[in-house]
Amino acid sequence: MRTCLAVAVAAGLFLAGCGSTPSRGTVAVNAPHAAMAPAGGLRERAQALVRRLVNELSPPPGTRTVQLAKLPPPLTYPPAPLQAGWVRVQRTLEAPAQPRSAWAGLLAHTPLRQIGTITPGAGAGAILPAPEPGIDVARFSVTLVQLSGTTILIAVGAEAAWLPTRTSAEHLDPAAFGSVTISAQRWAQTRVVTRTFTARAGISRLTAIVNAGVPAPMSVVAGMHCAPVATVYILRFTPRVAGGPSAVVTLGACPHAYGITVSGQQQPSLWDDGKLRMAAAALAEVR
Q: What predicted TM-score, i.e. pTM, was given to this entire model?
């Protein structure tokens, strides 16, 4: 799975970036999407995932769960209300430790194991695009607050969303298209490389990648920042017969998600795992 790391300060997540290369894991971002799976079953799987993420935390010996009537800053800000299709798990722990010494061991088995040391009152978070089939995104965060010279408060939480709706129009039938035009523009260059091809194998390859894509909730994507990629691609699918559907897929400079319009109508965005970019580069012969 791919993990987008973030830094959380004063209970607000400020994303530090997300590469397009999958990190170590067992499920690819472009895993088959269980579009017909029962909603109840997906909710149970999402709940199991967030519980597992929270339970992967490795707190110091002597840590106990606490229920505080009043939380200290920066934990006083309540979490945003959950949207439909999301589940959440939160725990507040008290541990006999110092923030700096506890941090590395605390996160050893979580998605945040790549984070270095932090300062008291700060924390970190991660976004996991498509962590497993049927689950579209998960978020995980940990914040530490020093209560005394020997005690810290640990706030840990996880959220997950499952299956935002994909419209039937977003399923691209390769037989409906007569050609595809790929435009490629490198960063900081005005020259655009354009290739048009009609080979059925190439069209089928591109539509198969799109059809296997995983929806990317825009509420998550909108707040993500990234380092721009080298090349922007626009794929224009031309109808095979007059009056047939057309489609435009835009792989922008930020490699989190890509947009799709079908016959001029915007469709749900999909997570960009790099597969469509690589296929477009090969077909357009971009070096």
A: 0.72
